[in-house]
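Hi everyone, sorry if this is the wrong subforum. Our group has a chain we'd like a structural model of before ordering constructs, and none of us has done structure prediction before. Sequence below.
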Amino acid sequence: MAERGLKRFRWLLGGCVLAAASWFALPVGLRHLEFFRVRRVEIVGLQYLDAAKVLAAARISPRASVFDDHGSLAERLRTLPGVTGATVGHRAPGTLRIELDEAQPVALTPKGDRLAMVNERAEVLPFDPLGSAPDLPVLVGGGELVATALGRAKAFDPGLFARIDAAWRVGPDVVFEVGGRWFWFGSRLTAEDIRAVTAVEQALARTGRAYQELDGRFAGQVVVRRARA
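Answer:
Right subforum, don't worry. Here is the predicted structure as tokens:
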């Protein structure tokens, strides 16, 4: 009985090894079949970049198979300006799926005779605002200090960020223009600063009180300045 059980175990082990080898060898064999040639490319996560530039950077061979090793393709895409991450997968029989992570702009800023998108380090991004028509605040001045504050506002309160029309620097501080009013913050803007200012904004709206500026630079209080005559 023991010998019979041992023989059965060996047969099972051999079958498992053979199945595993077949599983890993299957894509190697299938990649040569015309049925699995890449005929369609899906690009996911594309918001600002031009799809034609992405495909040009990918350099997909006309004879490429969905079962090819696409590691080098992903590496090429990661070097594309404006891309922070890229992965490549597939969906049989003939679709290649590219997933991109794009650099995130926080503002538009004047550059020569046009506007350019910048990230939270105030670095100009290789995106065309005319092509994507982003709804972003205008960075009037202040460089990285203001761009970083805008990035913090976007992370802490996307609702407020979406309402910011422009932003600039005054001394060491940052001013956001929101619906014609000014919101003042220190350069190291925090989530608590934003919560305090927006809470006062909402309270003033409920009571119908007019104001021009909300100053959140002081710990534990928000200074309200009336509308100028």
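For your construct planning: Residues 13-26 have pLDDT under 50 and may be disordered. The helical segments are 2-30, 51-58, 71-78, 129-132, 143-156, 158-163, 191-207.
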